[in-house]
Design a protein that fits this description.
about 45% helix, alpha/beta, Rossmann fold, about 1000 residues, hydrolase activity, 35 helices, ATP-dependent RNA helicase, globular, about 15% strand, nine-stranded mixed sheet, RNA-DNA_Helicase, MTR4-like_stalk
């Protein structure tokens, strides 16, 4: 296997120029890409590629001049490759030989690993120590296996596994590296090179801070090799490294993709693919419009089929193969495999894979090979674990060449599936987004089952950065002349959104630095640093400082613009504007009351005419005198919306939400807002897109209901049926020139209550004040209101910019640092002089859970009276974060032996939360207490008592992999608590935590990685 290519050769030809099964549109000609590298070339030969494909810059510390070092005469390369190096690889190696740090930013599968391997070979040649870090343990295990085969003198440190810690090359997670810096490890004094793989993890909200700490705390004599996906601000990151470590940092950037990609759309319910971006990155506007037009009919048909299936009890699912079945079958027929199908839900991955069970993608030899690999891996498990439902369920699928990969799988199954995929024994893999991170497993084809994802807040389009990361798996270097990306589309999309996704740039590498009590205490204990010094040297501070000059210049511009806006009779105009805004709010309140489900649902029968609100896309730029646009449409249906995924609050009741399907001459404006609220754009008759369309709207966009109903056809999919309904609306509007009769809220809709009457009275009063205002009939009112709106917008912009500039001029997170220090002093963790107390020493040892609450539990004696099982079960509340179906009942069903410790935990968490609140921390005490979730306490206690894994899984609906991950995190936390207890002489408590480790660390939960 070629270490640069990261792919295993197998049969299956490239996409043919004349092949019409891929698309119903003309195929582009072959890209005039650079020639493929020739195998067999000795030494560091460089492929003949255009020089423009590589950007090389060097970032220098301020006030220094770069003096490149000449290579030693007659020196041999540290490592020779059996293929020709790409220019970016050769350039990066040149920088390494000069003994200087380098950031390599390139696409997935471009060959960044070559640079890392050369750095390791070079360090070993010079008898130096080198550290290779990766973001997650699974990647570290995989990388250890690869490097150990190549270099032999390689060790591994991931916390739960330590192999050859004395080795010259150490593979570890970034968290271990950070910990070694703080503990002053001897190893760190000897490190000459630090390779940081996937350094774009630095922008990760939760764990990115670890990368920043590690880079800042690294020894001054160390040099870095940063490997990253393409980031547009690579120079900014390198400038920061050069400043912090007073050394040059080279940037070798290439957006050249060794295997060009073709991007296709597959409309829902359609039969063919449409090429929308060719291998030269040209956007095919005509093909895109054809595909979008095909979406409407297909999506409507699917929706109608779903409704029929829902409505009829025991109704059969819609006839015919699913869209994903059609795509996978086409991929296999045309030998565009292997294919990775990305879905954003673990349940969907499994459901889609089950749909493929009619297909058998492997021949008899491959089926035998799959069984052999599978059972060889399972031999490490006990007989009971071999009978687990997940183990038995997945083998028939794997034999057919179909796999699934998500965090809910047993880790050993995930690794088996990775190995089978690498060996070409799986042709179709259904995976979640995490598969696209780090693992070097390209395929010929990548399929997206959806274009939207749930980000914890709302459903949104996939960002261009996410799309680049996942689509980058398509196309195996040296095997495919191009990769194929298929985007399944079940809703209309504007060209601007599609171009932004398919042709947009990668996400910027921005700091996600945040403070924690562990970080503060570790810094206070560190003789060479302070929290302020770390903040001053952080990437976050660097980005804030760099943005300041531009921000100050922009403030001066906006100040001048604000001063130049004069409003004639400003006080009078402001009074009128405030009355207008007050009336708008009252109208919104009126609409909210009237369109409450209990009032409006009985009147949403098919055929009812309703007035739909079309708010402006940008309310700040809207005409201050113009009301929001409205259009009349026809109700076709209403549906209850599943809000389970959007439930934010612990234990809060969910209010039912509904959407109403309306046939109207308007379309969703996808460029405006991507939240639950749809911004509608009315379209004039005769303009493109003006055909009547059925759109789904939230109830709060229903402006009024007519007393008129018209007849509509049962099937509105044909354009003719929709146009006939639209003509009926036009006829109603013609017959009522003075306004369509509407339902009276009180008489017809039975809206009753003091709130409604209060709103109506206020609205009448404000309307009277507006009509009697001195400016009501002034011809200059509109321009004066527009001037006032512009002046107010500039004032708001100035306020925000000044606040931003003030924050940038001081140390970032300064206020939060002060607040956290106050908390530590109040609770007795540190003195006013930042001397760490005994409690602080304990908290500094805990980095994988809430250090304050755990420390308070220890010092309150809460663990003293608990058995090993109770203590371990209680720790599960610190690591479990997933939401489960029966979350509200989890605490009430707990046995007394666990309910007592949980109550003590919540009392202490409440006290810690109140102290933090009093110390001016931004914290919601109730939410803080609720984050300690008891969902798996019973399971962990049973596991500690010796229950079999199969027995535990019968007690819950959660995924096996999720529980194993939680148990492993508990074991890691127990190790930290054991060290903390020993550090303060609590040997009895340390023994209890050690007992927890021994009880929890067994069987399939801690089965050895197949990579080790």
């Amino acid at each position: 296997m070629d270490s640069r290519h990261g792919a295993t050769k197998r049969k299956g030809g490239p996409v043919d120029e004349g092949d019409e099964a891929v698309a119903k549109v003309p195929r582009p000609s072959e890209a005039d890409g650079p020639p493929a590298a020739q195998n067999g070339a000795p030494g560091l030969l460089v492929a003949d590629r255009p020089p423009a494909t590589v950007i090389h810059e060097v970032a220098l510390p301020e006030g220094t001049v770069h003096q490149p070092k000449a290579p030693k005469p007659g020196s041999k390369p540290a490592k020779e490759y059996p293929f020709v190096l790409d220019p970016f690889q050769a350039k990066a190696i040149e920088c390494l030989e000069a003994g200087e740090s380098v950031l390599v930013s390139a696409h997935t599968s471009a060959g960044k690993t070559v640079v890392a391997e050369y750095a390791i070979a070079m360090a070993l040649r010079e008898k130096q120590r080198v550290v290779y870090t990766s973001p997650i343990k699974a990647l570290s295990n995989q990388k250890y296996r690869e490097l150990a085969e190549e270099f032999r003198d390689v060790g591994l440190m991931t916390g739960d596994v330590t192999i050859k810690p004395e080795a010259s090359c150490l593979v570890m997670t970034t968290e271990i590296l950070r910990s070694m810096f703080y503990k002053g490890s001897e190893v760190m004094r000897e490190v000459a090179w630090i390779v940081m793989d996937e350094v774009h993890y630095l922008r990760d909200r939760e764990r990115g801070v670890v990368w920043e700490e590690s880079i800042v705390m690294a020894p001054k004599n160390a040099r870095f090799v940063f490997l990253s996906a393409t980031v547009p601000n690579a120079r900014e990151f390198a400038d920061w490294v050069a400043k912090v470590h007073c050394q040059p940092c080279h940037i070798v950037y290439t957006d050249f993709r060794p295997t060009p990609l073709q991007h296709y759309l597959f409309p829902a319910g359609g039969e063919g693919l449409y090429l929308v971006v060719d291998e030269r990155s040209n956007f095919r506007e005509d093909n895109f419009q054809t595909a979008i037009n095909a979406v409407g009919a297909g999506a409507d048909a699917k929706k109608e089929a779903r409704k029929k299936a829902k409505g009829a009890e025991g109704a059969a699912p819609p006839a015919g193969p699913s869209d994903i079945f059609k795509i996978v079958k086409m991929v296999m027929t045309r030998q565009y495999d292997p294919v990775i199908v990305f879905s954003f839900s673990r349940q969907d991955c499994e459901a889609l894979a089950r749909q493929m069970m009619k297909l058998d993608l492997n021949d008899e030899d491959h089926r035998k090979a799959v069984e052999e690999v599978f059972w060889n891996a399972m031999d490490s498990l006990s007989e009971d674990d071999k009978k687990l439902p997940q183990v038995n369920a997945i083998l028939p699928m794997l034999r057919r060449g179909i796999g699934i990969h998500h965090s809910g799988l047993l880790p050993i199954l995930r690794e088996v599936i990775e190995i089978l995929f690498q060996e070409g024994l799986l042709k179709c893999l259904f995976a979640t987004e995490t598969f696209s991170i780090g693992l070097n497993m390209p395929a010929k084809t990548v399929v997206f089952t959806n274009v939207r994802k749930w980000d914890g807040d709302r459903f949104r389009w996939i960002s261009s950065g996410e799309y680049i990361q996942m689509s980058g798996r398509a196309g195996r270097r040296g095997l495919d002349d191009r990769g194929i990306v298929i985007l399944m589309l079940d809703e209309k999309m504007e060209p601007a959104v599609a171009k932004g996704m398919l042709q947009g740039s990668a996400d910027s590498l921005d700091s996600a630095f945040h403070l924690s009590y562990n970080l503060l205490l570790s810094q206070m204990r560190c003789p060479d640093s302070t929290p302020e010094a770390l903040l001053q040297r952080s990437y976050k501070q660097f980005q804030a400082d760099r943005a300041l000059p531009d921000l100050q210049a922009r403030i001066l511009e906006v100040e001048a613009e604000h001063a130049g806006v004069a409003v004639e009779g400003e006080a009078e105009v402001r009074e009128y504007a405030e009355l207008r805004e007050q009336l708008r709010k009252l109208h919104r309140d009126h609409r909210k009351i009237v369109t409450a489900p209990q009032h409006v649902l009985p009147f949403l029968q098919p055929g009812r005419l309703i007035r739909v609100l079309c708010p402006p896309a940008d309310e700040d730029k809207a005409d201050p005198l113009a009301d929001a646009a409205v259009v009349w449409g026809i109700v076709t249906n209403f549906e209850k919306v599943d809000t389970a995924k959007g439930d934010a609050g612990e234990g809060r009741p969910r209010l039912p939400q509904y959407t109403v399907d309306v046939l109207a001459p308007c379309v969703p404006d996808e460029t405006a807002g991507l939240g639950r609220r749809k911004v509608m754009r009315p379209v004039e008759e005769g303009t493109p897109g003006a055909e009547p369309t059925v759109v789904a709207l939230p109830l709060d966009q229903v402006d009024d209901l007519s007393s008129v109903r018209v007849y509509i056809a049962k099937d509105l999919r044909p354009l003719e049926a929709r146009e006939r309904a639209a003509r009926a609306v036009a006829e109603v509007l013609r017959r009522f020139p003075d306004g369509v009769p509407t339902l009276d809220p009180e008489d017809d809709m039975q809206v009753d209550g003091s709130a409604y009457r209060k709103v109506m009275r206020k609205a009448e009063t404000v309307e009277a004040l507006l009509q009697g205002h001195a400016l009501a009939r002034s011809p200059s009112l509109r321009p004066r209101l527009q001037d006032l709106a512009r002046k107010d917008a500039l004032a708001a912009q100035l306020k925000a910019m000044r606040k931003q500039a003030k924050a940038a001029q001081s140390v970032v997170l300064k206020d939060e640092l002060k607040a956290r220090r106050r908390v530590l002093r109040r609770l007795g963790y540190a003195t006013a002089e930042d001397v760490v107390e005994v409690k602080g020493r304990v908290a500094a040892e805990v980095s994988s859970a809430d250090e304050l609450v755990l420390t308070e539990l220890i010092f309150s004696g809460a663990f003293q009276d608990l058995s090993v099982e109770q203590a371990t079960a209680l720790l599960s509340c610190f690591v479990w974060q997933e939401k489960v179906q029966n979350k509200g009942a989890a605490a009430t069903r707990l046995k007394e032996e666990l309910a007592g410790p949980l109550s003590a935990l919540r009392d202490i968490a409440g006290r810690v939360g109140k102290v933090a609140e009093e110390c001016k921390m931004e914290i919601d005490v109730d939410e803080y207490v609720a984050k300690f979730r008891p969902d798996i306490m019973e399971l962990v206690a049973a596991w500690c008592r010796g229950a079999k894994f199969a027995e535990i899984m019968k007690m819950t609906e959660i995924f096996e992999g999720s529980l194993i991950r939680a148990l492993r995190r508990i074991e890691e936390l127990l190790r930290q608590l054991c060290a903390a207890a020993k550090s303060i002489g609590e040997t009895e408590l340390a023994s209890k935590f050690q007992g927890g480790i021994e009880r929890i660390k067994r069987d399939i939960v801690f089965a050895a990685s197949l990579y080790l």
